[in-house]
Specification:
Layout (H helix, E strand, L loop, with lengths): L25 E3 L2 E6 L2 E5 L5 E4 L17 E6 L4 E7 L4 E8 L12 E11 L7 H6 L20 E7 L9 E4 L16 E4 H11 L3 H4 L1 E6 L1
Parallel strand pairs: 5-12, 10-11
Antiparallel strand pairs: 1-2, 2-3, 3-4, 5-6, 6-7, 8-9, 8-12, 9-10
């Protein structure tokens, strides 16, 4: 007999953001999908993932001013990254993505600002002592590009923040999120997005974006 598939709960959520926004997975053959805010995350049998509807055009500039040509806004509460570029008169939306960030409580203040100093393609990863305490399986030394345990993904944004001790809070890629859970807070402070998304972000910024200056604004 035919069985009716479960229906995703897309009812409005409470204003306070909780991990419950990532709903119970809905099996579909060997593919699992998750509802994440306005996005659907699809996890295949081989753990590869894609974000359906994960690229979007931001509706408006967040109510935080900037004087830079390129501005990346990271919302720690809604788990989104949005890129705006200064046009003739106003900031114009370029693109947005679903991302992983630490908890909003990780922010030392409501708004933290930084400037991108370098964009590194195929970065090496040098795990800190704190990371090695948790992930004891990591081999010694720095992990080269393409290494199965290299957590940096395909691209790394190095950022100079206005907050002391935040130099290791970066934007970088990832092959996938554990079980499709965008709310995994084991990011050690970084903002992560799928490799395909961060590759697209770099392409949209253009080759001269770092020289033109990119501000990163993290907020809750």
């Amino acid at each position: 007999p035919n069985k009716t598939k479960p229906v995703l709960d897309i009812s409005p959520k409470k204003p306070n953001i909780e991990k419950k926004i990532v709903n119970t997975p809905i099996p579909d053959s060997k593919v699992v999908t998750y509802k994440y805010g306005n996005f659907i995350v699809k996890v295949n049998e081989d753990r590869s993932q894609s974000v359906i509807g994960g690229k979007y055009l931001p509706k408006k500039v967040p109510d935080i001013t900037s004087n830079y040509l390129h501005v990346i806004y990271i919302n720690y509460t809604n788990k989104t990254l949005e890129l705006f570029r200064l046009g003739y008169f106003n900031y114009e939306p370029v693109i947005g993505y679903a991302v992983v960030t630490p908890s909003p409580d990780n922010l030392p203040k409501d708004v933290v600002r930084g400037k991108v100093t370098r964009i590194v393609v195929d970065p090496t990863w040098c795990p800190t002592p704190n990371i090695r305490k948790i992930h004891k399986h990591l081999p010694p030394g720095c992990l080269p590009p393409g290494h199965k345990d290299n957590a940096m993904g395909s691209v790394k944004f190095e950022i100079k923040w206005d907050t002391p001790g935040w130099d290791l809070h970066r934007i970088h890629g990832t092959e996938g999120y554990p079980l499709g859970d965008f709310w995994n807070e084991k990011t050690f402070g970084c903002t992560r997005l799928l490799n395909s998304a961060i590759d697209n972000l770099v392409a949209l910024l253009g080759p001269d974006a770092v020289k033109e200056e990119i501000e990163v604004i993290a907020y809750r």
